[in-house]
Amino acid sequence: MPALRLGWRSLLLVLWGLSSVLLAGSLRLAEYCSRRELPGLRQQLSQTCFRLLRSCLPVQVQVHGQLPQQTALWVSNHVSWVDIALLGALQPLSFLSKAEVRQWPLAGWLAVQAGTLFIQRGAGDSARIGQQITTHLQAGRALLLFPEGTTSDGQCLRTFHGQLLSGVIEQAIALQPVAIRYWRDGQLDTAAAFIGEDDLLSHLRRLLAAPAAQVQIHLLPPLLATPGENRKQLARRAQACIAHCLDNLPAPQSPTAAVTDRVQLN
After folding, report:
1. Is residue 117 helix, strand or coil?
2. Closest CA to 175 of 73, 38, 29
3. pLDDT category, 265, cuts 50, 70, 90?
4. Is 266 a residue whose pLDDT tops 50?
5. So what's the pLDDT on residue 262?
6. How far apart are CA 82 and CA 60, in angstroms?
7. Positive or negative CA dihedral for 222, 235, 84, 248?
8. Angle, to 10 degrees, between the axis of helix 39-56 and the axis of helix 2-34?
9. pTM of the full predicted structure?
10. What is the enclosing helix (H) or strand (E) of 208?
11. In Å, how far are 28, 78, 233 from 177, measured between CA atoms?
């Protein structure tokens, strides 16, 4: 059975890759013909790609809360590269990612086409990336970053770093905190985590051969910086909101019947 699951889902993933390349090529052609960049269209096509990718993955998704009505900087705990597909399917988003992702086969090229901002850890380019984030948000394009700076096994929350939050404070832009958790058989699914010595192909084989996991995504109330609050304090407040949600999540009572992007109002 695992071999059958792996074979079928691998085929779906190949078809997804081909369709994503076609969409990316169509975008490049549209930009060439219009002689200008089309970031709005880029985000919409990226959302389409993420929705297609989500349908290829062995996940059953429950979404709770409300999507932000205004442009916001999304901040989330980070367990796996799968987080990006699931969150990117909810709303047109751009992403901030570690520079290594750019080197991933196909996925790295698609990330570039999707308008991902890449940051080199330890390279001292936080100021440059921070300005890009501010420009991005001022143009009305939502963006998501993972303030932990790396993935975890999902059992604990790492410290949120606030170096890149100066722009949202200066421009009075809201943070959209998101809590994401993976479950399997009523227990935390640590197998979904992309950590340590994992490489993308090994993680894919493990993920695609496994039965479907349940994923809960909680869109928490947006946060605005309070008067006098600095970026570190804002990051800690967002971390506390997400930690409180994760600490109080009950295990799902029963598997969901199908993948859904329906937003359940609290």
Report:
1. strand
2. 73
3. very low
4. no
5. 46
6. 12
7. negative
8. 170
9. 0.89
10. helix 200-209
11. 32, 12, 14
Of 115, 139, 101, 132, the residue nearest 27 (C-alpha): 115
**What pLDDT is attached to residue 123?**
55
CA atoms within 13 A on the CB side of 115: 24
Residue 122: predicted pLDDT: 59
pLDDT band at 124 (very low <50, low <70, confident <90, very high): low
**Helix extents (H) in 73-152:** 82-88, 107-113, 126-138
The residue that leads in pLDDT, 104 or 257, is 104
Q: Output the DSSP codes for 27-91.
A: HHHHHHHHTS--HHHHHHHHHHHHHHHHHHSSEEEEEEE---SS-EEEEE----THHHHHHHTTS
Spatial contact of 164 and 75, defined as CB atoms under 8 Å apart:
no
Alpha-carbon span 169 to 186, nearest angstrom: 39
Give the mean pLDDT of 7-31. Answer: 92
Q: Which residues pair with 98 in a beta bridge?
A: 119
Answer whether residue 233 shows pLDDT above 70.
Answer: yes
Q: Which of 121, 163, 139 is nearest to 43 (CA)?
A: 139
Residue type, 27: L
Closest CA to 42 of 94, 101, 97: 94
How far is the C-alpha of 214 from the C-alpha of 59, rounded, in Å?
6
| Whether the Cβ atoms of residue 102 and residue 112 lie closer than 8 Å to each other | yes
In our burial notation (b when 16+ CB lie closer than 10 A, e otherwise), range 11-24 reads ebbeebbeebeebb
Region 21-38: what's the mean pLDDT?
91
